[in-house]
Task: structure prediction
Amino acid sequence: MRTETGQDVRLEDYKPTAFEIETVDLTFRLNPERTIVTSRLSLRRRSGAEKNSPLVLDGDELTFAGLKINDVAADESRFTATPSKLEVRDLPATEFFTLEITTEIAPVSNSKLMGLYRSSGVYCTQCEAEGFRRITYFLDRPDVLAIYSTRIEALAAEAPLLLSNGNPGETGDLGDGWHYAVWHDPHPKPSYLFALVAGDLSVVRDSFITKSGKPVALEIYVEHGKEAQASYAMDALKRSMKWDEDRFGREYDLSVFMIVAVSDFNMGAMENKGLNIFNDKYVLADADTATDADYANIEAIIAHEYFHNWTGNRITCRDWFQLCLKEGLTVYRDHEFSADMRSRPVKRIAEVRLLKAHQFPEDSGPLAHPVRPVRYSEINNFYTATVYEKGSEVVRMLATILGLKEFKNGLDLYFSRHDGDAATIEDFLACFEDATGADLSQFSVWYHQAGTPVITVGSNYDASERTLKVEIEQSVPATPGEERKKPMHIPLRFGLIAADGAEIEATGIAGVTTHGDVMHLKKRRHEIVFKGIQSRPVLSLNRSFSAPINIRYEQSSSDLSHLARFETEPYSRWQALNELAMRTLIAAAKSARAEKAVECGPALVESLIATLADDKLEPALRGQAITLPSEADIAREIGNNIDPDAIYTARNAVLDRIAADGSGTFSEIADTILPDEPYRPDADSAGRRALYLACLGYLTRTDTSAEDLLPIFRSADNMTILSGLLGLMAHRFPGSNATETALAEFEKRFSKNPLVIDKWMSVQATVPGSDTLGRVKHLMATPHFSIDNPNRVRALIGSFAAGNPTGFNRLDGDGYTFLAEQIVELDSRNPQVAARILTAMRSWKSLERQRREKARAALGMISGQESLSPDVRDITNRMLGQ
Ligand code: TRP
Ligand code: ZN
Result:
């Protein structure tokens, strides 16, 4: 939130509040148009706080309806109430006093989906980051921890179910069709973790016994008729609870844990204490409607929100600058969970692909910011890939540097020392220093400095001296407001691989400190000598992606092929292949740009096909191996003067070449790889389906036609294959009869299931080429679309802007104009979603000149609007460099 003077909020201005709130007693009298909220606060003046200083409570679009001080109606001279603020003066001189505040709110007209709103007739709340102030006036900041009791009153017919945080208390009848329920949460919490749900939903129940023997009732609430679709989420929840006990010793701390699925939600899910609220996309699944990727996301997000109970709720953030304290750490935890539940290398590949696709461009563009920022104008815009994904990588590096055992000791100290606190990144790092004796001062730069570090590597093997000399220089590119950068502590995992594939151990290493297979780069430049190397080795760097950096290293194609063949770590095998593919694709894109014929040398094709045919590798890895970097990946690596059409042409040429050379292998695998049992969403069978679809993709470039795909599409018994086939047909054979038939059949079959129709819309929005804009506009006019539902907006407009490089970046700029118009429209309803979708244009400055000018004009059109939300205003300003 911009402060009233229009200034940014700055970390250096942090001051604790003059008052503590010890307890909060809320009463909601629910009504769609006019809900009455009474909030009774017991306040305590902190020692040292000035006696006559006023109390200023945050509000946002509130209607004030009454104030009592120590149970006596306050005289109007003692307060000022506006929609965004309640200032109370002449407070009692005693240490303790109470305020009772009444507000009126209108859940039905709350289109921002922050605060109390209605989703398909269900009342629900979203309070992070600053939504609680849309319910009642409050000290709405994460360092104000209080004990909450909540009484909910509603018409029993409209809302038979009344839920809030904590443990259930008294319930009863109020006459006239009204009833009530009381909830009490014994754990002090910040307001952003408050939640309320009321409506008519079904429940799926299960239970869990914690490691110290306490029973926990598990409840997942879904729309009537969808009970069966909650069973996978329930299973994932129980596995998360067990895993957090086994791996981190963290036990659950209430007698009930509830999850509610709602269909209108700004993000993925929310970790409200004891009452997680989820976007239904991340709860509901069955073979007919969810893909393997949906199952994996559900598992990860259920775990993520559950893990927040310790990393976020028991220990929360002192202020929003510390967001990565809970998010980076919790993402690290959910990554580790998924790695343990599935395949660790496959999971690591997915993480690196995602980090590079979302965080690297953020870090190299106008929206770059440190993992722990020091200023913001709108906090909603800081729920970013940098805070979440890079934040997780920083925690992973800490574990790499300290070793898993010491890392665990540091984390144990963090849990014991800060339980019940609102903490900072400095507090967090101090725990690892105190528990292990390590000095993390240079490491902490990862939290404070934006930009992706680059290391430039040169190497030379001296046969007579039996040494390998390696020079490594690090630098960090300038980012907005940060020209000069400090050298960072980069933990770089490495290996030396001999001609026969054996791992080589040096007899000594000079010029850098190493621990096992990790070298610790700390200076701008290291000259490293590996001694006792009997034959020329191939250097493998950044194994397991130990640091989130870019590497410039002129390794020959044959060295990369060597690594792709012999690397013992499966992740690094993929990394070498991916690097080889990237080089080929960049060279191809340059040729295409110069309108020269695109060439694809044999090194890549041979390595790819050899990996594909290696049946000692799990299918999912082979699928990843043949999945080339995306058009956006190639654009990111080229970095400037981007022509998306040239990249598209080049990538297709390379794909065609691989398809031609590998057609025998592709068809053999496509014929045999699918599991021959009914659908199960486990990692192995998901990997088989992924490999199958990747092979089919290549086969559409040789002799498989749209007509050949149609019967496979029709006989699919699960959504992964069905939507995979639909995507292949739509993208490879747009406009063909078979494709149009498949689209029509799919639409008809799933027209009553919006989450599946979202897939249908995304497939169409991402068809390459300039014609797609017309299709998107047409789909927006169908009843499937609704601008008020974030999932629909993301599936159609979001997929088009962020997932269709040639379609969105049409040379005439109409893609940008369209997006700008939609952003303006969306902004008046849901600013958070509008701002998020607009970030699809964050790399506009790296486009070639003609497109860049069109993109600038579209951003200027948004910027020229008189009334914009702080959310969209902030993103537009930063993107335009203002
Ligand atoms: N804290 C949530 C998570 O990462 C995400 C979140 C933040 C959110 N703000 C939100 C979700 C607003 C919905 C709406 O787990
Ligand atoms: Zn989170």
